[in-house]
Amino acid sequence: WLFNYITNILMYAIIVIFILIGVILVAYYIDFNKRASRIEAPLYGAYVIVSCSMEPIIKTRDAIVTRRVSTIDDIKVGDVITYRAMDPSYYGILITHRIVDIKNQNGKTMYVTKGDNNETVDRSPIEFGQITGKVIMRIPKIGYLKYFLVSSYGWVFAIVLPSAAIIGFDIFKLVRNIVSPNGKYYNGNKKEKKYENMEKKL
User: Fold this and answer.
1) In this structure, what are the phi and psi dihedrals at residue 137, rounded to the nearest 5 degrees?
2) Each residue's pLDDT tens digit, 145-179
3) What are the helix (H) ranges across 55-189?
4) Residue 130, SS3?
5) Model pLDDT for residues 66-78, shown as the tens digit of each residue
6) Of the candidates 147, 135, 150, which has an alpha carbon nearest to the alpha carbon of residue 41?
7) What's the whole-model pTM score?
8) CA dist., res. 151 & res. 5, Å (int)
C-alpha cells in the first residue's frame, strides 16, 4: 500500500505541474496577444542570472522574477531592473543591474545603471523603453535546477523515470487484477473472491 500511496502522490504532483504549466502558457498567450500590436515587455518575466555583477545581493545561478513597469514614476534610484542593452558591445542582451542615477538628457529621462559588484557604472545610460521589468523576487540557486533539467540526465530523471514508474505500476495493477495468486482469472471483484474461498472450503 505504501508503494501505491507514493505512486499516486507522484502522479497527482505531475498532473498539478502540467496544469500549472498550462495556466502559465495560457496567461502568457493572452498577455502576448494584448501587446502584439505594440512593443511591450511581458507582464511578468523570469530569468536566470549568469554573471556575478550583482553579487552579493543576486548571485550566479539565482533566478529573478520581474514585473513590467508602466510609467516613469514606477522607477526610482535604487531599483534593480532588467533591461535590453542597446550598446553595440552587448546589443540585445538582457542585463539586470541597479539604477544609481536618473538624468534628463535633451528632454529624455535616462537611467544610469551599475552592477553592485562592478567598480564603474554601465557605459551607456538607458531609456525607459529598454526596461523590461523591475525585479520583485529572487529565488536562490534555482538556476542549477534549470540547467540540470535541460540536460540529458535531468530530462531522464524528471520525465522518463516518473512516467515509467506510473506506467509500470498501472501494468502491475492490471496484471494483478487479471491473474490471481493460484493462477485463476478474476476481475478483482471482492464478491468473486468470496466465492473462490467458499469453493476451497467445499
Assistant:
1) -155, 145
2) 777 766 767 666 767 777 777 777 777 777 776 66
3) 142-149, 152-155, 161-178
4) helix
5) 999 989 999 999 9
6) 135
7) 0.60
8) 30
